[in-house]
């Protein structure tokens, strides 16, 4: 199957990319976390923070291993255990898959893994894996790799200015065993929500960050010792405590192009054994094919990609109430976040709640990355986003039911189509246990149908999915902090949603659906893994 056809079917015709006879072998499922064996480990503090508000826990001095451990745990640690269906036989047999983290994941399978390169005072410099199952670091490679990583990022980041870099990877088999080829779409979104949580955690710990989607893949995978046919890095996020660091001002004139194959030869190979439990791993040729097509072989491939100008709408607009910046506790919002499913309750949502949700969520657009290559918040210009928010509203205070586009620079709703679209959305969803008639706000993250392929090639698709995931995670956290809840969904008919918003003929697509609204707590057993 051609790659562009595959990506089209991922969104519009999933049944064409998943065999009709595909069955899930739950008895041979992989672990939801990666376990390295027979390597040096660094235990991390279990005295995790119980509150993380804006302006708190800022570090005036160099971060310690304790700070780093807390940061990794808030980002991707195991935080609670939950029995989804009171199935005690399942609890006994597959108890580790009932562990949850602060971020959502399709089927709670968590295909992402975290690695960190550290150059700190209180432990050896080198590359580590974050072992979420045991809340510890596992040493994979010892040594200072500042110059190597600086070159792998195309000289757009001086790693000597940073104390760490986080690598967000994807393990292909982790959710392919259940979702087959659909996992390629899920893996990008899953990586994005992890990055979204990481960016919020970094603000609370006083870390300055920038997200790098463009890097020399084989060189970075080689640095971590990854088998590229099983796992690959999707994003690199350096961390610094210097608030005045200028990430993209480095003069690149006269710097030679760095080639992947030349760079990774500068480091000796490392190979480590890990355990994933599955006895038989089935092949996933399309995932390998797409991953190979997405790789960058030289720094000459790196591109600057600005977002789109806002679309033009001829209809009326509705100004939303002004909202003050929301001072919310990341830990509290993360604890309360869950996906309600059938537990939504139809109650009126105030304009203030809606305005807060949309304004605070779209602040996710303001993050440093190697696509814009601008230093936010120093810039005066608002960055153009590569993804947008559209919504179908019903039972929102003094707002007519209809489909709208959220114009975040003006903080207005642009009317696209009046009417109650809940029955249409309900018919377009492929789940019998989910009643969209009980949901007052149905959000859609919309992006370019061609995923900036003209500049980024097939890498643009996974970048687009990650940016959508960042926005989704911010939506979920803000919803949680104002007494609502959201439930990310891919089981919907994207063609129907595109028609509602009249974007079919303008090369825009609904990437993910997020119903948001009031809810009742489900009757299930849940316990936090901290006190």
Automatic annotation (TrEMBL):
<dbReference type="InterPro" id="IPR029479">
    <property type="entry name" value="Nitroreductase"/>
</dbReference>
<dbReference type="InterPro" id="IPR000415">
    <property type="entry name" value="Nitroreductase-like"/>
</dbReference>
<dbReference type="InterPro" id="IPR052544">
    <property type="entry name" value="Bacteriocin_Proc_Enz"/>
</dbReference>
<feature type="domain" description="Nitroreductase">
    <location>
        <begin position="101"/>
        <end position="236"/>
    </location>
</feature>
<dbReference type="InterPro" id="IPR020051">
    <property type="entry name" value="SagB-type_dehydrogenase"/>
</dbReference>
<dbReference type="Pfam" id="PF00881">
    <property type="entry name" value="Nitroreductase"/>
</dbReference>
<protein>
    <submittedName>
        <fullName>NADH oxidase</fullName>
    </submittedName>
</protein>
<feature type="domain" description="Nitroreductase">
    <location>
        <begin position="431"/>
        <end position="517"/>
    </location>
</feature>
């Amino acid at each position: 199957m051609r790659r562009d056809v595959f990506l089209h079917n991922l969104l519009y015709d999933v049944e064409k990319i998943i065999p009709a006879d595909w069955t899930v072998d739950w008895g041979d499922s992989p672990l939801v976390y990666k376990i390295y064996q027979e390597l040096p480990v660094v235990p991390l503090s279990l005295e995790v923070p119980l509150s993380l508000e804006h302006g708190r826990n800022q570090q005036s001095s160099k971060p310690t291993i304790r700070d780093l451990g807390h940061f990794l745990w808030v980002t991707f640690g195991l935080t609670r255990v939950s029995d989804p269906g009171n199935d005690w036989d399942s609890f006994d047999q597959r108890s580790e898959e009932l562990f949850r983290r602060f971020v959502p994941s399709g089927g709670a399978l968590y295909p992402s893994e975290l690695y960190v390169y550290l150059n700190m005072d209180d432990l050896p410099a080198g590359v580590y894996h974050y072992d979420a199952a045991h809340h510890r670091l596992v040493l994979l490679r010892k040594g200072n790799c500042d110059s190597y990583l600086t070159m792998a990022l195309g000289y757009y980041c001086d790693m000597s200015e940073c104390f760490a870099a986080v690598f967000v990877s994807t393990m292909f088999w982790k959710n392919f065993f259940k979702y087959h080829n659909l996992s390629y779409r899920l893996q990008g979104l899953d990586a994005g929500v992890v990055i979204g949580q990481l960016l919020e955690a970094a603000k609370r710990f006083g870390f300055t960050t920038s997200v790098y989607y463009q890097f020399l893949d084989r060189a970075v995978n080689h640095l971590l010792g990854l088998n590229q046919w099983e796992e690959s890095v999707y994003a690199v996020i350096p961390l610094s405590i210097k608030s005045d660091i200028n990430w993209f001002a480095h003069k690149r004139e006269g710097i030679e192009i760095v080639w992947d194959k030349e760079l990774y030869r500068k480091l000796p190979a490392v190979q480590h054994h890990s355990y994933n439990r599955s006895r038989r791993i089935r092949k996933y040729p399309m995932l390998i094919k797409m991953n190979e097509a997405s790789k960058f072989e030289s720094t000459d491939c790196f591109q600057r990609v600005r977002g789109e100008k806002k679309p033009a709408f001829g209809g009326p607009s509705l100004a939303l109430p002004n909202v003050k910046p929301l001072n919310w506790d990341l830990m509290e919002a993360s604890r309360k976040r869950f996906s309600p499913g059938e537990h939504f309750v139809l109650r009126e949502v105030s304009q203030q709640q809606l305005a807060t949700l949309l304004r605070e969520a779209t602040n996710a657009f303001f993050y440093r990355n190697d696509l814009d290559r601008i230093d936010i918040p120093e810039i005066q210009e608002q960055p153009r986003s590569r993804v947008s928010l559209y919504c179908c509203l019903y039972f929102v205070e003094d707002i007519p039911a209809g489909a709208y586009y959220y114009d975040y620079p003006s903080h207005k709703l642009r009317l696209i189509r009046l009417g109650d679209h809940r029955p249409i959305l309900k018919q377009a969803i492929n789940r019998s246990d989910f009643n969209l008639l009980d949901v007052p706000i149905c959000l859609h993250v919309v992006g370019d149908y061609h995923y900036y392929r003209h500049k980024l090639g097939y890498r643009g698709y996974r970048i687009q999915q990650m940016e959508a995931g960042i926005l989704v995670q911010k939506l979920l956290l803000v919803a949680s902090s104002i007494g609502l809840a959201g439930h990310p969904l891919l089981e919907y008919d994207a063609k129907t949603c595109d028609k509602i918003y009249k974007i079919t003929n303008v090369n825009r697509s609904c990437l993910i659906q997020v119903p948001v609204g009031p809810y009742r707590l489900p009757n299930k057993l849940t316990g936090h893994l901290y006190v």
